[in-house]
Amino acid sequence: MVARPDLPEEILIHIFSRLPAKSVGKLRSLSKTWRNLLSTPHFIKSHLALQNTRNKSLILIPPSSVIRCVETIKGVYNNTVSRELNLPGLCCEFLGSCDGLVLLKNRDDEVFLVNPITMQQSKIPDPPVPVLRNEALYGFGYDSVGDDYKVVAVFYPMSDNKTPVYIGRLVYVYYVKRGVWKKIESSPRHYGLPARFSGVFLNGAIHWLVPRSEDCAVIAALDLDSEVFFEIPAPSVADMNDFFFGSLSVLGGCLCVVADTLSNSEGTDVWVMKDYGAAESWRKFTVSWYDFGDLFFKPLCFVGDGEEEVVLLVEGPRLVAYNVNEGTVRDMVVDRVQGRFLDGGTFVESLVSPA
Coiled coil: which residue ranges (predicted)? Predict the structure, then answer.
């Protein structure tokens, strides 16, 4: 048995909370004493608070649907090494992440909450009302007041003959710690549903880019503490008469809108909201159609600590780094081959349990 150093518990927590999550996992395996100390809620929260949330790891889903985990993005010139995650079924869609937990959907439209570092996982039960799984939109985040993680499902109700009723919509919240679903009364009935995208979590709320009317798009946000919807102004380009295609993500800790517009014949605009909630803080760069044509792409993260290169997941599939200043594209190499992935997203390494 490995003895624990004769130091006060708070000092040990202070020291070990600065270690990478994988290193803490190895220490846990040394003895029951270490496992008990490094598994307390206090230690897990202390460890999470000290993680560099800007240094993102990637979850990547290749055509084989055998999910891969990339724990560091060093740059486009270096070979990036991934590892396979042993998850139930074949995963096909990334639904969101928060505090090191990742929400994934498999080909059977079953939803799972996974910690890619500890490999713990938990299946999310279906909402307590009939719903077509493949038509439900999801979001995932943390309620700081209730100290619970929440999965949000937005969907149309079903008729008696098992077909969707496209009038109004239902919003249900799943409380991960309590293991129960709850219907939210403040459903955004004047919003349309986005065609294919899950919500993104930032600043305590889950956000969707949605049509509010025939000529206007808006970012609808659900505050997870109060469970009340509010609005954030979309970029001024969000005129539905000009909007060909739009998606929402988080890039460098900021809301990010990818906007294909009919009036822009040169490329696709990427808008980043530098000051959360402030309409005047939207800034943009344009990705030339010369690089991707009209293929959809999804910004994942910046390479390294700067904001010069952005990792993009491009339909095709293709994983690239786009240089914002130079307007150049380089293919990223994963496991010594050009990265080809159907979907993916970012997460921070943590010890948080999905159950």
Answer: none
Q: How far apart are CA 72 and CA 87, in angstroms?
A: 21
Q: What is the pLDDT of residue 187?
A: 60
Q: Dihedrals φ, ψ of 27, to 5°?
A: -65, -35
DSSP string, 198-264: --EEETTEEEEEEEEETTEEEEEEEETTTTEEEEEPPPTT--TTTEEEEEEEEETTEEEEEEEETT-
Per-block mean pLDDT, blocks of 10 residues, the chain (355 long): 66 87 88 87 90 74 75 54 66 90 88 91 88 80 96 79 65 95 75 71 94 74 94 74 72 90 76 94 85 77 83 84 87 72 88 92
**Unique residue bearing structure tokens 């009317």:** 213
> Residue 122's beta-bridge partner residues?
113
- Tell me, rounded to whole angstroms, the distance of Cα 196 from its chain centroid: 14
Q: How many CB atoms lie within 10 A of CB 252?
A: 15
Segment holding 12, helix H or strand E: helix 9-16
Predicted TM-score of the model (pTM): 0.88
Q: Which residues contact 285 (CB under 8 A, 6 or more apart)?
A: 269, 270, 324
